[in-house]
Each structure stands twice: as structure tokens, then as C-alpha cells.
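Support request from a user on the community tier.

User writes: "When I paste my C-alpha cells into the form, the page sometimes reloads and wipes my input. The last time it worked, I copied everything first. Here is what I submitted, just in case something in the input itself triggers the reload:"
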């Protein structure tokens, strides 16, 4: 089992647009083989800093989702609202 952490920073006041897209991503991810769970958090001191944590059965399942055309399309839309590309880190137990 692995945990994937994505750190995202939103530009300006685009929080509502970003949250809408993150929800769409979560719904699509939940339909993927190997997806276990996920959560989205934002920093108390800076509501423009987001942390998305997802749990997958293994690296192959995450990599399949990471390369999925639907995910890539939503990520391209998210890029319009982000300061920079998300920082992605994968952890195992």
C-alpha cells in the first residue's frame, strides 16, 4: 500500500474553482482500480495551500491513474489556478 501526497498552491482568490476541480478528480480517482481512500486538506495559516493525500494498493495503480487521460485533462485545467505544478511524493509503509 502507498500514500501519494500532492501539494498545491492556488493563485489569488481562485479557491472555489480549484475545489470544484479537485472534487471532480476525487470522483474519477474513486473509480480507479487500486484506489483505497483520499482526503483534501488546506493549511490553517494559508487557505491557498492544499494537500491532497490518496491511498492506493500499490505504485502501479497510482501510476496508471497518474497517466490516465481524464486525470491529465483535469490536471491541465487545475494548472490554470496553480502557482506552480503540484509537488508529488509517494510514500510506502
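"...and here is what came back when it finally went through:"
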Amino acid at each position: 500500500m502507498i500514500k501519494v501526497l500532492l501539494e498545491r498552491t492556488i493563485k489569488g482568490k481562485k479557491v472555489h474553482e480549484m475545489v470544484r476541480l479537485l472534487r471532480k478528480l476525487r470522483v474519477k480517482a474513486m473509480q480507479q482500480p487500486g484506489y483505497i481512500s483520499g482526503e483534501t486538506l488546506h493549511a490553517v495559516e494559508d487557505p491557498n495551500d492544499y494537500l491532497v493525500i490518496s491511498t492506493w494498493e500499490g505504485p502501479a495503480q497510482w501510476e496508471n491513474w497518474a497517466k490516465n487521460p481524464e486525470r491529465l485533462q483535469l490536471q491541465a485545467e487545475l494548472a490554470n489556478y496553480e502557482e506552480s505544478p503540484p509537488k508529488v511524493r509517494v510514500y510506502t509503509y
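Agent notes: The reload is a front-end session timeout and is unrelated to the input. Strands lie at 2-9, 35-42, 49-56, 87-92. Residues 5 and 53 are 5 Å apart (CA to CA). Escalated to web team.
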